[in-house]
Amino acid sequence: MEVKVLQNILQANDAFAEENRRFFREKRILVLNVMGSPGSGKTTLIEKTIRMLEDRYNFAVIEGDVASTIDADKLSKLDIPVAQINTEPFGGACHLEANWIRQSTESFDLDKIDMIFIENVGNLVCPAEFDTGAHKNIVILSIPEGEDKPAKYPLMFRVSHAMVISKLDLIDAVGCDMELLHENLKKVNDGIIRFKVSSKSGEGFDDWLKWVQNEIEGIKK
Ligand SMILES: Nc1nc2c(ncn2[C@@H]2O[C@H](COP(=O)(O)OP(=O)(O)OP(=O)(O)O)[C@@H](O)[C@H]2O)c(=O)[nH]1
Ligand SMILES: [Mg+2]
Questions:
Q1: CATH superfamily placement of domain 2-214
Q2: Exposed (0-12), middle (13-18) or buried (19+): which is 32, by Cβ within 10 Å?
Q3: Model-level pTM?
Q4: Which residue is closest in CA terms to ligand 1's atom 9?
Q5: What is the pLDDT of residues 53-62, one digit of tens each?
Q6: Which of 112, 115, 165, 105 is nearest to 138 (CA)?
Q7: CB-neighbour burial class of residue 166 (10 A; exposed 0-12, middle 13-18, buried 19+)
Q8: Element (H, E) at 29
Q9: Residue from 33, 34, 35, 43 to probe ligand 1 pocket by mutation (most atoms less than 8 Å from CB)
Q10: E-strand spans in the chain?
């Protein structure tokens, strides 16, 4: 019985997600869903990316958190539209659902937006199960989390189109077996696009920004 209920919830979410993807494509707005563990560097990457591309494109952000508006307040300082989804009033869900995404954009002037970043709730499990309707899923894995994560949380890495390895500046301090990380990734999603960045030093941002711009331009065609 419980399995059936979960199946129904996921099916309903998938239908909303497809509708979101179609809707935002028609509006020529790229939607990227950023997922990853708490503290992996999602907000920092989003903030830095927007700062580096804000002269060319108009951004908006949907912030998903169990509680608080800490990240949303931070990103609002960029003078962009930010919508906060807190899941605590609905039982503290550890993911975002597609119909919440659509509702949260009702406050945005969509004719003035080129790209929406979704910052999903921080964890490597639930967000992978719920399609938000984003055009691309990004998983951030920070160096201190370790090279075994694709093996331990395979669905997250399977549903992601791109992986950003963050906090590259910490590699000498904490160590990370990059070869094993790539081997682990290969087993779950060989085709995943890989970036290595440090939001602290700016290392690796050129490739990441090029990819983001390419995706924004792609949706405009
Ligand atoms: N050394 C280093 N620290 C970083 C880097 N990126 C982020 N941080 C730091 O890591 C901490 C967490 O970063 P956030 O961007 O808030 O992480 P988050 O994934 O948004 O966290 P939640 O929203 O709580 O899930 C902060 O203290 C950041 O300054 C990086 O590339 N290098
Ligand atoms: Mg954050």
A1: P-loop containing nucleotide triphosphate hydrolases (3.40.50.300)
A2: buried
A3: 0.97
A4: 41
A5: 999 999 999 9
A6: 165
A7: buried
A8: none
A9: 43
A10: 30-36, 59-65, 82-86, 115-119, 136-142, 162-166, 193-196
Q: How close is the Cα of 107 to the center of ligand 2, in Å?
A: 21
Residue 34 makes CB contacts below 8 A (sequence gap 6+) with 42, 45, 46, 117, 118, 119, 120, 138, 140
What confidence category does residue 2 fall into, taking pLDDT thresholds of 50, 70 and 90?
low
Six token digits for residue 199: 């939001």
Closest CA to ligand 1's atom 29? 44
The two structure tokens encoding residue 77: 């300082």
Residue 74, H or E segment = helix 70-76
Ligand nearest 142 Cα, by number? 1
Sort 213 into a burial class: Cβ within 10 Å, 0-12 / 13-18 / 19+. Answer: middle
Q: What is the mean predicted confidence (pLDDT) over 137-146? A: 98
Per domain, the residue ranges of the chain are: 2-214
One-letter amino acid at 63 equals E
What count of other Cβ atoms lies within 10 Å of the Cβ of residue 113?
21
* Average confidence (pLDDT) over 53-75: 97
Classify residue 182 as exposed, middle or buried by CB count within 10 Å of its CB (0-12, 13-18, 19+).
Answer: middle
Q: Is 32 helix (H, G, I), strand (E, B) or coil?
A: strand
Two tokens, residue 61: 């952000």
